[in-house]
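Reading a protein record of the kind used here takes only a little practice. Think of the row as the fold of the chain written in a discrete alphabet. With that in mind, consider the following protein and its fold in token form:
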Amino acid sequence: MTPPFRKVLVANRGEIALRVIRTCRELGIATVAVHSAADRDSAAVRLADERVQIGPAPAKRSYLSIPAIIEAARATGADAIHPGYGFLSEDPDFAEVCQAEGFVFVGAPSTVMARLGDKSTARALMADAGLPLLPGSRDAIDDPDAARALADEIGYPVIIKAVAGGGGRGMRVVRDGDEFATAWQHTRAAAAAVFGDGRLYVERYLESARHVEVQILADTHGTVVHLGLRDCSLQRRHQKLVEEAPAPGLSPDLAERIGAAAVRGCAAAGYVGAGTVEFLLAPDGAFYFMEVNCRLQVEHPVTEMVTGVDLVAEQLRIAAGEPLTLDADQWPGGVAIECRLNAEDPERAFAPAPGTLVDCALPAGPFVRVDTHVAAGYAVPPHYDSLLAKVIVWAPDRPTAIARMRRALAETTITGPGVATTTDFLHDILDHPRFRSATHDTALIGELNTPVAVR
């Protein structure tokens, strides 16, 4: 089979860069790893066919430098650029520049990314496509008094969200009207500082919701399919720690309705590529659109494990203009669980805990997958995301998957001066009766973890 591209530049680092390079190798595609000075000896750099240092350690001067990445692609003769997740993966300007400079961007079109990256526009588009929204403002609100009046009308608690937000940032829960003005001011200032866009909207906040999401693939020929649901309810500070596919405890009818809504919304948006539509699921079974992530998700391996579909390979084929040829009847099924091993201290509000790894023993064995870029001697840099490894297990049923993950985490040892990880905390979560009974929600970790103030 002819490879979809001759050479792909991977505009990322860490485990996701390594993940993309591995699939490219299987497809017979040459790879280019760009890297900062801090990552010159990384696993992705060693595995790639070519490597280009694009700047010093700070991400703003390396992985977020569009001119440096484009120059590296030009110098190495790459014909496509894969952004991974994070960094520039959902930056419509980057996608547009790639196209303008003659490189295929492996992701959603820049115009679609711009529409869906703006939460206000995305909400309006999805509402028009018939997807349910939580009570709140359909569009951004400029007037804080009008926002307060709306919050009073829909009832507390509410959540204030940045239109340009993402990754768990740019949001604040307000439980009382007296808190609203201060929360609005702080959220707007933070949104302007982090995203360069201070626009906000307000919606009802669900206290006991589950966070479920749908994996989408859409080709350039108008075909949009979903590959099932994932549960991502176990989170700290709105960022995920445990993911599972399929989402447990949902009736087949409810799961299909959520999946169909995701397909309908992406078709209406003209989506192309791999993407994820995220929903909140209320205790009464009602579900509400949250956002669309126009990229590969960190948790994509659980979908790969239960479907047998290489999502990176599908991204590359779609970007090359090939039609989707998936056959759901051949999916293996079963249950997959992913745990994120982060260099964070759960006892200190999950504060980053970087350092040099002295001992790094990661699990193996039947139906265990580990996506990582670290080993003993690796110096965890303080400049980037704290993710060290993702441990993913598969089993024919959920109790066996949980037991297998507990075994895998028990085999894991990651130590070093100053290094703390989420490993033991995750092991405890797997034992919690609400997780085992699939009655957990987004509030569970916050209820269990009452950390001391970070000094």
